[in-house]
Amino acid sequence: MRSLSFLRAFLAIFVLSLVAAPAGAGGGGPFPPRAGQPGSTAVALDDPRIVAWAERMVSVEWGEDLSEEWMAPERALGPASGNVMDVVSLGRGGRITYETALPVIDRAGPDFAVFGNAHNDYFLELAFVEVSSDGENFVRFPTASLTKDPVPAFGSVDPTMVDGFAGKFRVGYAVPFDLADLRGEPGAEYLDFNDVRYIRLVDVVGGEDARFTSLPQSRDSEGRLVYDPFPTIASAGFDLDGIAVFHSELRAEPVPGGITLRWRAQPGASTRILRSTNLREWSVHETLAPANTAEQVWTVSFGEEARVFFGVAAEW
Fold first, then answer.
1. Counting CB atoms within 10 angstroms of each CB, which of 43, 210, 215, 308 has the fewest?
2. Looking at the domain that runs over 4-21+36-245, which CATH code has it been given?
3. Whole-model pTM over 0.90
């Protein structure tokens, strides 16, 4: 039998599907609009730039108003599902850290992306994004929130009024992040821009009311209060579906009848080669033993498929 907390969460999802778009839904702010609109930066699940995913949960601190059903870090491992129920929730003010299968490196354009599970384009539960090379010193991406008024539990956030947060786009679409945006930020001196391994999500506390929370309301990089749906219950806080890597030291070299992949090995990790024909459904093609060299190499022959994709995942 489903628990009462699960039923409340399911009811919330049903209600949220009926939430109307805010007035001026075309976007009243200066930041990229919702997925599918001109100028949107939303990243789709089948974006061909994706070369790897987060594959290990390093640490978690659960936040407030979170039922056990949603304390499932394994749901955000590997490729994002695009399923609103197949996520890990942080709880109000919670935080979680993952390690990627391949180190993220700074190249032109976005270097990784974070998938959430917003049920529509406007019910946006937000999170700060931080990265680290050593797992100890984290640097937070700059954020901006121009939402002026409190947002009720089933209220709406205009995506053109927020920037730099995970959770800005609906389920199936990710927010991209460019490591270059961190150059010059406090703590950036501890970051190796050619070897970022850890990504941390910190839930935004989108309101302040002693009846519901003892936590202070979050502020953006300029000190403005950040508003998102508050208070939510049972599955409170940001919901994570997956973390995709765009730029890493994964190199593809064509060989007769196939391809050779080369990448920087993760210490102590075995490697799963993932295979897909559509960039949405993935299967394990082969598992490689932990490498005792700095670089791993793998070669495959293509066979009869007209189109096939391979990805790399680490397993500790």
1. 210
2. 2.60.120.260
3. no
